[in-house]
Amino acid sequence: MARITAGVGSSHVPLLGVAVDQGKTRDDYFGPIFAGYDWTRQWETEAKPDVVILVYNDHASAFDANIIPTFAIGCGERYKSADEGWGPRPVPDVEGHADMAWHIAQSLILDDFDMTIINEMDVDHGLTVPLSMMFGQPEKWPVKVVPVAVNVVTYPVPSGNRCWALGEAIARAVESFPEDLNVQIWGTGGMSHQLQGPRAGLLNREWDNKFLDLLSSDTDAARYIPHIEYLRETGSEGIEMVMWLIMRGALGEKVKTLHRHYHIPCSNTAIGHIVLEPAI
Ligand code: DHB
Ligand code: FE
């Protein structure tokens, strides 16, 4: 039986991909950011997941205003790194787990989540930067990935409550997959940031840390944070944090925090990172 053994939350700032690709991860600017991921890179070599269900958002790379799936699942065999304007990142292709992804898609749809099924797409920084943060620069990614893409770019975006419930449904889907697989679920994006308009550059250390507290507490208070609070307190792009709730919802009632990291600033963003384990 497949089982979810851990959840990882992480920002997915494109500049961190540039730092990895250009060998700058230990310079004065990036050093303190990457230092907060050292623990996780080591832990991942011991945790050895087979599959990562990687919750992220596409930033107008695979989708655009012509098609806006609220929740989509990648059921393909492999995904290439998207060209976001500077050429594709020099990272390995991302290998999917088509059998498991189709199983999850079926389970979710029969569980009343109307997923969009994607067989072919390129994946942008939202997916490849977290892989680089957690695994460095291997010749081949050490995990298979089931991408779960969430629309957090064009309103209406899904509520935190709906995201949490999707996480619960993903956990049910994984538990009913017969193969004996070690599965992690990652929620990416955030933390506070606003990339445009008069409030561009907005960061909110206090609110972000309160959110991290809530994630690692045994309550489900975070699932009911309304959109307007994310917007007001964390800027227009802070809404990416609802994707962390899919990860948290999949871990069950109680969790144990294994690792936590927060750093300001990185590019236009606050960096947040947490590693959680389901607790009995
Ligand atoms: C930045 C952060 C993001 O999450 C993103 O998707 C794009 C840009 C930034 O801080 O520059
Ligand atoms: Fe983003």
Automatic annotation (TrEMBL):
Q: Where is the Extradiol ring-cleavage dioxygenase class III enzyme subunit B domain?
A: 9-271
State if Oxidoreductase is listed as a keyword. yes
User: Can you say what this protein is called?
Assistant: Protocatechuate 4,5-dioxygenase beta chain
Is Oxidoreductase among this UniProt entry's keywords?
yes
Tell me the keywords, alphabetical order.
Dioxygenase, Oxidoreductase
* Source organism: Novosphingobium hassiacum
What is the superkingdom listed in this entry's lineage?
Answer: Bacteria
Q: Which SUPFAM superfamilies match?
A: LigB-like (SSF53213)
